[in-house]
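[Q] Does anyone have a clean structure-token version of this?
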Amino acid sequence: VFSFMLFLWILPSFVKIKALDVWIVPIMGALILYSLPKDLNENILTIDDFQTKLPWNIIFLILGGTAMSGFSEEFGIINWLQGMIPQNISRIAVFFTAAVSTAILSNFVNGTATVNIMANIFMPAAISLEIRPEIFAYILPACGMAIMLPWAGAATGTAF
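[A] Here you go.
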């Protein structure tokens, strides 16, 4: 099942398949695990596993943050925030702004979503300001690990 899922995740790199989204593959893998028999009386995964052993609150926390990141891009919030960055700003100010805003926002929003949102804001802005965008690949994840509130991330939510 793992090899099949890995194949499906890599396949869109070689063949254009619009219906095969990155979020569809885990669902397909789970459905396969629910249908494959472990022995004569029971499948590998059962409905009891689905109802009681999955940490649904953490799953919703992560998926909600990721969805929020996607919606902020769809609704134009990302473009609006990119437009607020002045074109004559210094490099140090861009790095400082990215680090501080990511650290502050990640206290209130899921860390994964914060890093996605900030990467969508600062990486294209870096290209237009002639700054290497790879630098933000180091800054943003390092600053997006706040643990102040329970919804700031999966680890914090689990500890809460």
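[Q] Thanks! Anything notable?
[A] The chain has nine helices and no strands.
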